[in-house]
Amino acid sequence: MAELPTNLKGFAHVYGRANINTDEIIPARYLNEHQEAVLAKSAMEDIDPEFVSRVKPGDFIIAGDDFGCGSSREHAVWALRGAGVKVVVANSFARIFFRNAINNGFLAIECADVCNGTESGDEVELDLANGRLRNLTRGTEKTFVPISDFARELIEDGGLLPHIQKKAKAA
Amino acid sequence: MGMTITEKILAAHSGRDSVVPGEIVNAKLDLIVCHDVTTPPAVSMLRKLGINKVHDPSKILVTPDHFVPNKDIKSAELSKYLREWRIEQGIERYYEVGNHGICHAIAPEQGHVIPGQTIVCGDSHTTTMGALGTFATGVGSTDLAAALATGELWFKVPESMLFELTGSLPHGVYSKDVILYIISKIGVDGARYKAMEYRGEGLKSLSMEARFTITNMAIEAGGKSGIMPADEVAEEYVKARTKEPYKIFTSDEDANYSERFTINLSELEPIVALPSLPSNGKFISQVERVKMDQVYIGSCTNGRIEDLRIAASVMKGHKVADGTRAIVVPATTEVWKMAMREGLLEIFADAGCVVSTATCGACLGGHMGVLGADETCLSTTNRNFTGRMGSPQSKVYLASPATAAATAITGVITDPRELLTKAKTAAA
Q1: How many whole angstroms separate alpha carbon B11 and alpha carbon B19?
Q2: What backbone phi and psi angles, to 5 degrees, belong to B302?
Q3: What is the pLDDT along chain B (428 residues), one digit of tens a residue?
Q4: Rounded to a whole number, what is the largest CA-CA distance in chain A?
Q5: How far apart are CA A159 and CA A152, in angstroms?
Q6: Residues of B with CB below 8 A from A73's CB?
């Protein structure tokens, strides 16, 4: 079992709007493909065509309410992860996106009012052990909702399928 | 404390006497629906882990629907992968192109959906099937893989919101207007994580086909599911299609709801949801007569036979306006055949519409009517997000099949009651 990293650092890409949907994260015209590296080239294309040229491995997406609403396409998580995004911190998440994220062992963190006081390009640090999101550029911090035990277990096991295999072996 | 229909179904499928919202349960699944976009990645995940057999092929239904007939080489490869996999796994419930349909429409139409079931599919509009008193929800490919491998899945028991429908729909107003109205009131995340439960005299007055349109769009309010108790109308629909025994669950009188709403159907007007959120619904009397480059009638939301009958009744004897294209996409092959026998395809063709075979098609910007930059489309589909039907610079308006047909004839957003009244007068 892989322990969750305690601290993650990266640069922020802020999308302050609510309801950033899966058609914006990865348009359906690319769903004839499911390789992460290929999907990554079109991540966020319809909302921010420059995103893929700016994003660097380990970066954060910081967003408003209901991130990932719409389609159930897991391609949205794969496109972001393929592009190098390490974590999405949003005011709240749409249900299926959140499920897809933790099923993939991908961090989706809920943090109230997260966009306020953070600009794209700021360096941010996620302190999972203490439930803090720090803006290192501005010297500020916010408290976030701790990951539930169930989600933590899935993420630590590397996602839902390894989790199920582990449980089957233990039984 | 009593339980809702959703809580009862989840409890019964997880070996429990009762469950409460927020609990995580492992529920056995009765039906797993698979299509060409999200199933191939699920299968390849399982193969990578050395899991080469599904848990129970008899609980799986497969139909290619999104990009069929295949729109390009990559989508042909996806369909091929799906086809070969279902043969290898011995999955008998398979609808090949020619007998195919949009999965959420064909599964109930062909008698695979019965009250009391738990249903998942790698598609957010799986909620459609809740209209027959099932717990039906959309999942991603990893969840789908887990469901295929184990026959069960984890669920957080959702809170339920109750929508009491009273009155009856006025002439020219349809169930699409009801759900667009509800989403305009509660917003695209108004039902986030929740089950949207419907009941009341107003519900009883709606046909099964009309009901599917309402549960179909639960996800457009962020809902986990949409659900309606199975009544006489639902039982008649099911019994005409299958002899499978089923159990009907109903909510207790003292069940707990996070919110309650009463919607008087008699007070509604046709509604149009403006770009680019399904929650931007406005009564048509307050909507400008915007010019439409395209009208699209179809999808898992509004591609059933009743939808086509309504559209044809408006369109009969008219022509699609100059400067507008109209595309009609029956949701299943069976709907297409019924429309042919009833003469609806002829009405559409004579009016100057393109009639397609069943496909998800341009609803999600796949093929059969994708939009270019700055083009406008009034569509009977479920989403009008930026870029949903093609170019990110295109604009999509959502409405009922009647409003769509009226708009196709005039070329601008049009209240169907204007044409329905004329048709009535002409017939009299």
Answers
A1: 6
A2: -145, 50
A3: 899 999 999 999 999 999 999 999 999 999 999 999 999 999 999 999 999 999 999 999 999 999 999 999 999 999 999 999 999 999 999 999 999 999 999 999 999 999 999 999 999 999 999 999 999 999 999 999 999 999 999 999 999 999 999 999 999 999 999 999 999 999 999 999 999 999 999 999 999 999 999 999 999 999 999 999 999 999 999 999 999 999 999 999 999 999 999 999 999 999 999 999 999 999 999 999 999 999 999 999 999 999 999 999 999 999 999 999 999 999 999 999 999 999 999 999 999 999 999 999 999 999 999 999 999 999 999 999 999 999 999 999 999 999 999 999 999 999 999 988 766 666 55
A4: 49
A5: 10
A6: 37-38, 140
Q: Which of B189, B194, B370 has the most A C-beta neighbours within 10 Å, making it the best mutation to test the interface with A?
A: B189
- Closest by CA position to B400, among listed B238, B209, B227, B172: B172
Cα gap B57→B34, rounded to integer Å: 12
Residue type for position B425: T
**Euclidean distance between CA atoms A124 and B315, whole angstroms:** 58
Say how far apart CA B389 and CA B366 lie, in whole Å. 7
Interface test with A, best of B142, B152, B379 (most A CBs within 10 A): B142
Rounded distance, CA A73 to CA A115, Å? 25
Residue B97: burial class (beta carbons within 10 Å; 0-12, 13-18, 19+): middle
Has this prediction a pTM greater than 0.95?
yes
Query: Chain B contacts of A103, Cβ < 8 Å?
Result: 140, 142-143, 146
Alpha carbons B419 and B299: distance in angstroms, whole number: 24
Pairwise CB contact (< 8 Å): B124 & A104: no
